[in-house]
Structure formats: C-alpha cells, structure tokens
Amino acid sequence: MMNDLTTALQRAFENLYEALMGDYVPKEKNEEIRIIKKGRRITAAYYIDGECIRHGNAKCSKEDKFNFEYGSKLAFKRMWGDPNA
Q: Nearest-CA neighbor of 37 among 83, 68, 78, 66?
C-alpha cells in the first residue's frame, strides 16, 4: 500500500513540476480492469500503463456452489474498497 502511495505522489509531483516549467502535456493513460479466475478464486485487478494499481479477491468455499458472475462482482467491489463487500 505504501508503494502505491509513493508512486502516486511521485507522479503527481512530476506532473506539477512539468506544469510549472511549461513543459506539461497531459499523457494518455492506458487503463484496464482484468477479471482473472484461478480455481475457485476470482481476482479483479486495475492497471494503469501496465502497472497493477489495486486489486481485490473473492474465494468460494468448498461448501458453496461456484458462481463466476457473483465472484467477479464481489472481487470488483473489494478492489474499490467497498466496505459491504
């Protein structure tokens, strides 16, 4: 988590410096969300420019029936920090 904060602050300061120096050109960001299934685990991961910024997991217990759609939604909500997920 600290690495994410450090990276985000570094990017913000770089952008601020470029803006103050007059060299700032907004960069196009390549953003994507991946939903990955491995066994009974679903992972939702958010990437910016190929770097995983945040992720969330959902694992189905052996007693429950696996449902890809439900697990994907749960992992997605956890990725964004939903307290009810």
A: 68
